[in-house]
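[Meeting: bench + compute handoff]

Bench side (C.D.) handed over the final construct sequence. Compute side (W.E.) agreed to return the predicted structure before the next meeting so the bench team could plan truncations. Sequence as handed over:
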Amino acid sequence: MFTTKEDLQNHLIKLGNDLKKDKNSVLKPRCIYEEQEITLSSEGFFTPCCWLDDELYRVQPWVDTFFQSHLNIENNENIEDIFESKEWGDFWEMLINNPHNAPPVCYEYCASQKGDKEKYIKTEKISDFIFELDIIERRH
């Protein structure tokens, strides 16, 4: 178990970095290739997805970029100024042209190795019994 927040953060970085190193793992960012929604945090910052908004991931490279005061919604006349900022442009450029530089969190949630093998067991409750009906493969 993790005794500190830092221990958990280091574990999460290791998970993503292990996927990065795996030759069978290909980053396919949902924020680019799928309809992943941009997130507006309760603190007034936009991130490309909800995972980057998680405080645990803010110690990872690129993630902290989105939490600079000049990118806060309160410090901008319109949101286009935020999305057209150098920080957002550099992030998209990196994901498309240099995905190996993506933060570990991107690999944790958007690498094909994990996403293509994620399985859920479909269950149905009848009376007080739960029956496993089928294993459903979820593809990203």
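W.E. noted at the follow-up: The two ends are 29 Å apart (CA to CA). C.D. will use this when planning the next construct.
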